[in-house]
Design goal:
This protein is mainly alpha-helical and 136 residues long. Helix content is 59%, strand content 8%. It is built from 6 helices and 2 strands; from the N terminus they run H-E-H-H-E-H-H-H. It has a two-stranded antiparallel sheet with strand order 1-2. Helix 4 crosses helix 5.
Length: 136
């Protein structure tokens, strides 16, 4: 675990497409997400991107938050990356972890748009989100 912490700490940030920053800021200022930070919204966006099977490459990459803000949840993007890339190197090398995080950034880049759509009807948001994530 110490070795993985060492190379992950050298990667520093998870990124978003710079044109999506206003969506993150809008979500964080909403009542629904008032106690959530960028890492939480990123992970939720990641889940929705995976659910829809849609990755969108980042065109203008911008730092969203420090990877160490994920704390114990750092295993989520590493596991997603390992599954997607079919490569155990995500747990063993800095380059492998960087590739895993890139995959997750692309999934979250599509998922944030889905969250933004859900927020257009805040009264139905929670019900729709739960249904979306639980239904196959």
């Amino acid at each position: 675990m110490a070795a993985i912490d060492e190379f992950i700490s050298k990667i520093n940030y998870l990124n978003i497409d710079s044109n999506k920053r206003k969506i993150y800021n809008k979500l964080k200022s909403s009542v629904i997400f008032k106690d959530m930070g960028n890492p939480d919204i990123f992970l939720l966006s990641l889940a929705l991107g995976i659910k829809y099977g849609k990755r969108i490459k980042l065109v203008n990459s911008s730092n969203l938050f420090r990877i160490n803000e994920l704390r114990d949840n750092v295993w989520i993007p590493l596991s997603v990356g390992c599954d997607e890339l079919k490569d155990i190197q995500v747990f063993e090398t800095k380059e492998g972890a960087r590739e895993a995080f890139k995959v997750c950034e692309e999934y979250a880049n599509s998922g944030i748009d889905i969250l933004d759509e859900y927020m257009k009807k805040p009264s139905e948001f929670i019900v729709n989100l739960i249904e979306e994530l639980l239904n196959e």
